[in-house]
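User: These chains co-purify. Model them together.
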Amino acid sequence: MNDFVEIVIRSVCVLAAFLVLPLLVGQTEHKVMGHMQGRLGPMEAGGFHGWAQLIADGVKFAQKEDIVPLAADKRVFRIAPALGIVAYLLALAVIPFGPHFYGANVPGSLVWLLAIGGIGTLGTLMAGWSSGNKYSLLGGMRTAAQLVSYELPLILVCASFAIAAGSLSLVGIAHAWNPWWLIWQLPGALVFLVAATAELQRPPFDMPVADSELVMGPFTEYTGLRFALFLLAEYAGIVVMSFLLAALWLGAWAGPLPDSLGWLWMLIKGGIFAFVIIWIRVAWPRLREDQLQRVAWLGLVPIALLQLAITAVGVVVTSR
Amino acid sequence: MTTYDVLFTIAGTISVAAALLAVSTKHLVHSALWLIVSLASLSGCYLVLGAEFVALVQLLVYVGAIVVLVLFALMLTRAPIGRSAEHDTSRVQRAAALVVGAATAALLASVLISAFGNDKKRVNGGGTHLLAARLFGSWVWPFEVLSALLLVALVAALALARLPIGPRGDADGVPR
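Assistant: Joint model of the two components:
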């Protein structure tokens, strides 16, 4: 009975974090982009700096008509938005905020996270195909091409962190962390950041959704709440990837204050990476499709392999 | 009947049903999507047996990479929405496939039943550490040979894609 109560409490906490953190990231993105681009954006809703604009957007999305195109494959079209959301919810559950502060402690939680993240992007593919729209199909194809190429460096650098820690569990990796990792795993962390941004199809890697040429690609035909679910999945993806990088490279809850405040460190570290991902969007123009593939295969994969070699040498030398 | 038995039966049934739908559906892309369901529930079977690493790699490789590649190839060539009859096989071929499938299933079933019968076996050995020890201990040579085979396939694919085959004029589509 006690176990059951614990499971329920942990699940409710994960759900609450899942409902709050992506919205926070969304609001931060509005404000940060507004300031970086020297424009105000919506300032009226709610009073102080338009903090309630996101709520107003949500209400607007909920009121819109839910349209399914005549030429669409209706069942797949309806299921597609749910896949991404559910996948990131399951991914968030295994991210540790403290030695005992997590949704679930799975022995292979790193592999779990990567596998589930891959499933989430299948939703975008399904959306692109089932819309019965040429723009959407093009977007879906670009998504698939991008996914196949950026999944590889992402998994390689995650393997590097796992080898360095000697564990596949995120809690185990955070326990094995020490400050040397900041230098030792630096190339891997940079590759992770770039590959994660590409995996989330955020600018400058947003060729699949490029709104000015593909009209949002796979999401062209979506309206109302289903479109909002895709947006929410993108923000949830930022949350998951930022906290994953914080757990892998910055040692999750490690910090100077007593251990009971570990979750605060984790929030700060994850928040910094989320901010950087937003910053990247403002700083770089969109890459063309062939440049995008070039970055993955000629830039990220060799660096990731080099990082794997460095990690392997380090592990062998230090374990003597 | 333990909880594990029930879960295993459920995952197995879903896997088999989705596999049957994958080969019998008239919608081309649906067949790839049913393949996802089938492969994912198969990883559920591994999970129930305690091999969590194998289950997760099954998800990562088969669902996350191979089916994505299949979907990409479908979208690149032809991915009609709705029923399509142009890729249907002939009745003879279907009957032959049914016979071969049934024969393989019967062979596997008879081998398994004659080897284990109704004995109860404890399943242990799916853990990540034990798997790694086996893979890089007793099975290290087959493992390395397999990776060499994959490398050869990769180089061959690159050669097929990049090198012009035949006279140069033909490769460009311009007759001499």
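Chain A has one domain: 2-318.
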